[in-house]
Amino acid sequence: MVEHYEASNDATITLPRVEEQIPTEERIPTVVVDDAHVIYRVHKGAGGGTTPVAALRRLIKRTSAPNVREVHAVKGVTFTAYRGEAIGLIGSNGSGKSTILRAIAGLLPVNRGAVYTQGQPSLLGVNAALLNDLSGERNVTLGCLAMGMHPDHVARIAPEIIEFSGINERGDFASLPMRTYSSGMAARLRFSIAAAKKHDVLLIDEALATGDKGFRKRSEKRVRELREGAGTVFLVSHQLSSIRDTCERTIWLESGVLRMDGPTDEVIRAYEAFSNSK
Amino acid sequence: MADTALVDPATGLTQAQLAARHGLRVAGERPSLAEYSRRLWAYRHFIAAYANAKLVASYSNAKLGQIWQVLTPLTNVAVYYLIFGVVLEQREIPNFIAYLSTGLFIFNFTQTAVLAGIQSISGNLGLIRALHFPRASLPLAATLTQFQQLLASMVVLIAIVLVTGEPITLDWLMLVPALLLHAVFNAGVVMTVARLGAKAGDLKQVMPFILRTWMYGSGVLYSVTLFTRLPEWAATVIQYNPMLVYIELARHALLEQAPVLNGSLVQLWLVALAWALATGIGGFIYFWRGEQEYGRG
After folding, report:
1. Pairing state between β A232-236 and A68-82
2. In B, residues 110-149, which contact A (CB 8 Å cutoff)?
């Protein structure tokens, strides 16, 4: 790991007061991100020096593989999320949105700074594959058990989850293996499973974008319910409309740096102006 | 740790102080060993359901389906019997076919569990990255799946043993503790290789060869008394080889005239118990120490 420190900034900076500050009758923070830096190593994949001979030479000379490069994906992001908030994360591709979510979920270590969370945040991404050889029903059961639910409770809510996901709208798909599902159906089922539990902090990565219109309506409603159930929801999406519909606060990241953090309308307006000018 | 002091205007606290005040924890922190064990126990239903699901899924593409649970061990025995019993005409050991099946089934439990265990983290990254549960559930479930498979093999084995004319004795009951100790030992090995396999993908390539060597040193296909020209230390290694110990215990339980190498039977049980405890506990601690690394990268 590369530890690189910039000029130390240990001076105490008082942030300018944001207008119309909500009278803080003890807002409870659920996620505190403190000057987080995430640097990770990516494999560039096949390229120069991937022959067996080259690999052997590297082993002997003890040099690191040439196809590994370090990416400084998040560069000192600081913010605090409170209970009952839904926060949108926007930014161009590769701006560090998904990386910061994974750091909050505790799946990526921060190289510098810290991320504090209340309870265990759950990350719900489109790549969150369950067991593809098993039927949708069994995946629901397994997913719920994996979230720590009691078997009796699982048996009770499993039909609701299937119903919510809408995978049975075109015949009985719930009893078919998940590998036979379309990508949209699988994503809907995954979202439905994750949304069945009350999470202190729920991180959603582009999950809503995959469903069709009816499902998106239902899931946006569900996100609102989760939020009212005293949780915090983070939503990463390129669809600004779904951020506008679900989040009242938005954070805009660009190249790993926090560009703007504020009410959704303002941030999205600024972001759109930025994207159009490019 | 960051020494930045961005003060929140509303509360006058730094981010770290704010987090501490509301009892927030560092993301992805590893729980204590006691807490981890407690959580794992709370996930026992998940472990059982997952193990069961894996067992069902493993034959979901085969026409004969679950019948393979019985057919696989039978085919295995048939192949080795053909070579060692018929072609090489093994005569030293009485009731060779029962002797061979016992060794094969017991060893196969470890072999398949280890091979599944290596991938129990690396093959489940989707699940790990999506949901939070004690990761030890996965290697334990892999062991449990193979244990269920072993029970199916044991039904086959008992049929073989009976058909080949072994009498039913009280000794058969000793098979139960022997298999349980073996399962604990396997769970420890599986948790160890699961952590190793999560970091180094190369292990998957090497493991079949390690297992093959282990099998030849465990007296599965022949008696290790054939190894007459080994130096003292190598003979000791073979004698205390856990796989040999578990196989011998099973053979002693089921077969009337099984040759037992390991000194006395009491010694054999003590070695089996020691291996189970040391590997089971050691593997669990080793796996727990890596808990926050799984699914990263």
Report:
1. unpaired
2. 126-127, 129-133, 137
Residues within 8 A of A (CB atoms), B 33-72 only: 42-43, 45-46, 49-50, 53-54, 56-57, 60-61
Same domain, yes or no, for B21 and B36? no
Q: Are residues B103 and B193 in the same domain?
A: yes
Residues A148 and B132: their CA atoms lie apart, in Å, by 9
Name the minimum distance, in Å, from the CA of A97 to any CA of chain B. 16
A114 to chain B nearest CA, in Å? Answer: 7
Tokens standing for residue B268: 């054999």
Whether B3 and B139 share a structural domain:
no
Give yes or no: residues B125 and B105 share one domain: yes
How near does any CA of chain A get to the CA of B49, in Å?
A: 7
Q: Which among B11, B57, B295 has the least Cβ separation from residue A131?
A: B57
Q: Where are the alpha helices (DSSP H) in chain B?
A: 15-21, 33-42, 44-58, 68-80, 96-122, 125-130, 137-163, 175-199, 203-216, 232-240, 242-254, 265-289
Whether B7 and B149 share a structural domain: no
For chain B, how many structural domains are there in total? 2
Task: Sort residue B81 into left (φ over 0), alpha (ψ -120 to 50) or beta.
Answer: alpha
Whether B22 and B146 share a structural domain: no
CB of B292 closer than 8 Å to CB of B29 = yes
**Nearest Cβ partner for B129 among A107, A116, A177:** A107
For B210-257, write each residue's pLDDT tens digit. 999 999 888 888 877 777 788 888 888 888 889 999 998 998 888 877
Task: Supply the ipTM of this predicted assembly.
Answer: 0.74
Task: Give CA torsion, residues A128, A132, A138, A144, to 10 deg.
Answer: -10
Domain region containing B15:
1-30
Average pLDDT, 10 consecutive residues per value, chain A (278 residues): 41 43 65 85 58 75 66 86 87 84 81 84 63 82 85 88 81 80 80 79 71 76 74 83 85 88 89 84
Alpha helices in B241-264 (DSSP H): 242-254
Per the CB < 8 A criterion, the answer to whether A236 and A65 are in contact is no
Tell whether A108 is within 8 A of chain B (Cβ). Answer: yes
Q: Which sequence spans correspond to the domains of chain A?
A: 29-35+80-277
Element (H, E) at A140: helix A136-146
CATH of A29-35+80-277, one of 3.60.10.10, 3.30.365.10, 2.30.30.230, 3.40.50.300: 3.40.50.300
DSSP percent split of chain A into helix, strand, coil, nearest 5: 35, 25, 35
DSSP summary character for residue A234: E
Q: How does pLDDT run across B11-33, given as a tens digit for each residue?
A: 567 777 777 777 777 777 788 89
Q: Could you give the maximum distance between any two Cα atoms of chain A, in Å? A: 66
User: Which of A204, A169, A170, A203 lies closest to A187, judged by CA?
Assistant: A204
Any CB–CB contact under 8 A between A177 and chain B? Answer: yes
